[in-house]
Write a structure and sequence with these properties.
The protein has helices spanning about 15-25, 30-45, 50-65. It is elongated, with a radius of gyration of 15 Å. The protein is about 60% helix and about 0% strand.
C-alpha cells in the first residue's frame, strides 16, 4: 500500500471518492489524519505529548519547520 497526496478542486472530490470506492481504495482527508494522530497521542498516557509538542510535530511534517 502506498500513501499519495492529491490536491484538487473541491468540486471534483465527489467524483474521485466514487471512483476510489469502486476501486476499493481508502481516502482520508488530511484533517482526519491529524485528528487520529492527536487522539493516539492522548491515549498513550505514559508517553503523552503536550499540545505544544503535537503542534510542533504537525508544523515539522506539514511545513518543514
Amino acid at each position: 500500500m502506498e500513501d499519495v497526496v492529491l490536491r484538487m478542486p473541491s468540486a471534483d472530490v465527489a467524483l474521485v471518492m466514487q471512483f476510489a470506492n469502486r476501486m476499493g481504495w481508502r481516502i482520508e482527508k488530511r484533517s482526519n489524519i491529524i485528528d487520529r494522530f492527536i487522539e493516539a497521542c492522548r491515549k498513550n498516557n505514559a508517553d503523552a505529548l503536550t499540545e505544544q509538542e503535537i503542534q510542533e510535530e504537525v508544523n515539522a511534517v506539514r511545513y518543514g519547520k
